[in-house]
Amino acid sequence: MNNLQRICEICLLNNIYTPNELQALLKAGKEPAVHTKNYWKKVGKIPRLNATGIETKLWIKNQSNGEYYLRKTILYSESMVESI
User: Fold this and answer.
1) Per-residue pLDDT tens for 31-55?
2) Which residues on neighbouring strands pair with residue 47, listed in sequence order?
3) How many secondary structure helices (H) and strands (E) does the chain include?
4) Cβ-contact 6, 58 below 8 angstroms
5) Which residues, including other chains, have CB under 8 Å from residue 8's CB and lie 6 or more apart?
6) Fewest Cβ atoms closer than 10 Å to its Cβ: which of 7, 30, 46, 47?
7) Where do the domains of the chain lie?
């Protein structure tokens, strides 16, 4: 399972998107607005004060040997963040 599939599964399990909404989003060539804290920071947003992120594991590439491994990650949906 790749990261996009894992994120889509998380979106469905946490009622972030309905199956129809998610399917329409993917058909339009877009990805779910569910990202890590670092991603949101790069686009000028931060998690809300009491927002509880969604814990999961995503594939990360090891810089030294190029291999992939699963690493614990906290994801936040667009509704959980606010502008800085």
Assistant:
1) 999 999 999 999 999 999 999 999 9
2) 81
3) 3, 5
4) yes
5) 22, 26, 32
6) 30
7) 3-83
